[in-house]
Amino acid sequence: MAHTDAAPRTPDQEWWRSSVIYQIYPRSFADSDGSGVGDLRGITARLDALADLGVDAIWLSPFYTSPQRDAGYDVSDFRDVDPLFGTLADFDAMVSRAHGLGLRVIADIVPNHSSDQHPWFQAALAAAPGSPERARYIFRDGKGETGELPPNNWESVFGGPMWTRVTEADGTPGQWYLHIFDTSQPDFNWELEEVRAEFDDTLRFWLDRGVDGFRVDVAHGLIKADGLPDFVQSDEEASMGGGAATKSPYWAQDGVHEVWRRWRSVVDEYEGDRILAAEAWVYPLEFMANWVRPDEMHQTFNFGYMETPWDAAALRKVIDDSIATFGAVGAPSTWVLSNHDMIRHATRLALGEDTPQGHGVGPDSPGLPDIDEGIRRARAASLLMLSLPGGAYLYQGEELGLPEAIDIPGDARQDPTWHRTEGERYGRDGCRVPLPWEAEAPAFGFSPAGETWLPQPEVYGVLARDRQLGAEGSTLEMYRAALRLRRELGLGVGAGAVTWDVTPEGVLAHRVGDVHVVANVSGAPVAVEGEVLVASHALEDGMLPADATVWVRVPE
Ligand code: BGC
């Protein structure tokens, strides 16, 4: 395993500073047993496709024991695999195959909350108010004469109150417990040393099994402000965000950094550049940079970049600001366009209407784009992203140009957001639909039984991997070429500012050595000179059309 050598690295050699990490959403990647839900054996069997794509690492969304009320982000045993996905032995086999192919493996860890089926929470329910069992979570007495009102006015990210009332052992209505997300996801009490120690052990459990790091779920959660004061967030902020400006009492509290410093010292006990990557939806970037100070995490998802519209000035600003701001604390910037919580960028970047994170789109949403136009813009955006210095994240299916699945019938939708808001928000199912591997196979090759836990749109057939592999001009071939060139030409390496060329309005152009990257975000074609290395859309008579990006070599 070339990548696990223990030789010390200089900071600019650390793999994660310029890595491309591919997010696998296990439910929807590949199903080996015909259950209609993807699994670890399915992943192992398809890993060569990712090595062929040219990524450095995979990050797997949760596969732990879970009642699956929030697609596995409701964990009832942090140290085992859910039978839906396989066994620990399947996990070990997957890691070993990945390492054999030169792919690192990042696990997803969910420290803010557990499932309500976790033995600790079950013990808390059975125990009395004020007991050590209840102290592991956030239980409070209700307000009102008989405690019939929630302890404060906080609203869950998924809609509805952030509190649920329990029935005490004697059958009487009792205390309330806090859950930032679904009722089935009670928040841990991170003030308690016992909770911290438990997670240290969980980190070591997976590190000992060979994982190369963790994506840390809700890394801006965990600690709540003293006294749990009332607070109302706007719709946009309530989805996931928090930050310096809003001072929400349940996001981004100072005390959380103590936890990350402790976690850093745990991963640093291990050889081989193991990493922590924060999912911290906080703004502005200066504030987000606190998560990647030298003794905290290695990377943080750049949601500022992800949420930037397809607009040249806005893109240039966020790129410059990200590199400068993360650079100021010695961290690389990261770049990401899609994940399992966002509308896929092949739809989002061409949407006529702003949609808050987590709300999703469905058949009745205004401003839905034409599929081909959306894919075209997504390809241009991806090619720009892969040229930038720092780490990049890909979400499964974007290498095929998959658009968001729009026409999912209400009774097939599974995201708790859809149910908790009674259909007012579509939620995140549209970006989580099982992948198409083979156009002619049942379930497009996702499952041998032809089953899928969410219905696949018809267009996924045309976009199936086997249709695109080796097909000139396909999105898959564009990603393969870009990832190969990125590695060969050293794009992505270094943390210095981007060198921008002077360009017409709406056009972004920067250079890395003799490679010029031109992204045409304007509405009109623009002249480009040089030898084309990879393009999101063919040049026509030396002109790069609108909504297209090209990498060209221009002799210096
Ligand atoms: C994950 C979501 C999940 C939530 C609760 C997020 O940030 O990415 O998919 O629903 O955390 O765990």
Report what the structure shows.
The strands form six sheets. An eight-stranded parallel sheet has the order 13-11-9-5-2-1-15-14. The N terminus is likely disordered. α5 packs parallel to α7. β7 and β8 form a beta hairpin. The chain contains 16 helices and 22 strands. It is an alpha/beta fold and 556 residues long. Helices cover 26% and strands 15% of the residues. The chain has three domains: 389 residues, Glycosidases (TIM Barrel); 60 residues, Alpha-Beta Complex (Oligo-1,6-glucosidase, domain 2), CATH 3.90.400.10; 53 residues, Immunoglobulin-like. The chain binds beta-D-glucopyranose (BGC). The site of beta-D-glucopyranose (BGC) has 9 residues, from loops.
List the defining traits of the structure above.
about 550 residues; Oligo-1,6-glucosidase, domain 2; Immunoglobulin-like; five-stranded antiparallel sheet; eight-stranded parallel sheet; single chain; binds beta-D-glucopyranose; 16 helices; alpha/beta
